[in-house]
Amino acid sequence: HDALPISLERRREMTLSFRIPGVLTALNAEAGDRISAGQVLASLDPTSVAATETQAQVNVEKARRDLARDRTLFAQGFVSRQRVDDRESALRAAQAQASAAGFDRRWARLVSPASGVVLARLAQSGEVVQPGQAVLRIADETSPLVLKANFADRDAARLSLGATARIRLESLPGQILNGRVTRIGEAAAARTGTVPVEIEIQAAGADLRSGQIATAEIASEVQGQSREAAARVPAEAILEANGSQAFVLVLDAQSRAHRRQVLFQGFDGNDALIQGLAPGSKVITAGAGFVS
Fold first, then answer.
1. At what angle do helices 81-106 and 46-75 cross, to 10 degrees?
2. What's the pTM value of the predicted model, to 2 decimals?
3. pLDDT digit string (tens) for 22-68?
């Protein structure tokens, strides 16, 4: 087992920023506020953006007039075809600038991409913010709580997807939460040589919040063997799985099927690793969902 102190976070946590520079005139969110998808959280002074968009529209109108005039002169033989082509290119460029200005106008407001909670407020009203400068950090509360840790490559090699974890929180002494390894990085970081590992908490309660410190004890493999002797059955034998709990159908001596709860340790290729069955048990491995 490996024990390491790490902090909880939502799988989807986002830092929100503006695409354009400007003066922050409204910031309608504080740390801890509940927010909904589509809610306007902050906005920039629209004066500069509106002026840029107006200028872009004026340039489009001028480019259209120039093109119409030169097309008439071309038909009369007073200007060359190249002159008309240049006017057409200038109109397309002006239209592209107008589209960009309209896109920037939409970015003068900061809209929440998900429902959740504000984790941090990183700017204040009246500040001049630059493109990409962090303004708010939010968490999507529909995404699961996870622990993300970096393992030495030799330790990450001992872990497998679905491996169970026992999680203890400093704020909830004496309480143990169940988790499982849901992601293992495919490559080690170039500078540190560590591999990122993600542990998803099963059946998280309302007392859990992003940023809480936890200690995770992860079931690992030693010398190629699992921490306990796990039975290997085809993945199709699993009726349902929820965290470390799963069910299979076991046949008795009279070939009657019985639903049995087992300890689920995750998948390994096309197989599932389980514990809790007596040696020699017969398990239905195909069509289990059609058995009554």
1. 160
2. 0.57
3. 899 989 889 989 999 999 999 998 887 788 889 999 999 999 999 99
